[in-house]
């Protein structure tokens, strides 16, 4: 079973998380998600346990438990449906159009313009 663990203290290590879950049974893998630019923990991760009964017991007992002063969130990780995944190559302009017209040269001499000006 894949288990989501959230609200983790930023200082927690994967070995510490593994140790917490191994108290309930075998652990296949532990992954704390970190920011790819800073390397700092994002405060959540995933634990994989091969035995579903042990995994459920870990979820039941660790959800809401205090770890290094923070109440953690522990639940079964469900894969996202295909339609909800973020696509980074779908030719949409995303947040580019946020803020309306853009105001042109309001960025201190930036000649790129703003908003939709100059686009076809």
From TrEMBL:
Domain spans labelled RRM: 1-79
GO molecular function terms attached to this record: RNA binding
Transmembrane segments: none
Keyword RNA-binding: yes
Classification via PROSITE patterns: RRM
UniProt superkingdom: Bacteria
SMART domains for this protein: RRM (SM00360)
Biased composition annotated in UniProt, kind: Basic and acidic residues: 77-87, 109-120
Protein name: RNA recognition motif. (A.k.a. RRM, RBD, or RNP domain)
Protein's organism: Flavobacterium micromati
């Amino acid at each position: 079973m894949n288990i989501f663990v959230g609200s983790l203290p930023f200082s927690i290590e994967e070995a510490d998380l593994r140790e917490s879950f191994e108290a309930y049974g075998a652990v296949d893998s532990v992954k704390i998600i970190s920011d790819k630019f800073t390397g700092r923990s994002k405060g959540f991760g995933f634990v994989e346990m091969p035995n579903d009964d042990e995994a459920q017991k870990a979820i039941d007992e660790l959800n809401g438990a205090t770890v290094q002063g923070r109440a953690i969130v522990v639940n079964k990780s469900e894969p996202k449906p295909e339609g909800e995944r973020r696509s980074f190559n779908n030719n949409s302009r995303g947040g580019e159009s946020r803020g309306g017209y853009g105001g042109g040269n309001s960025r201190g001499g930036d000649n790129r313009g703003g908003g939709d000006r100059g686009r076809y």
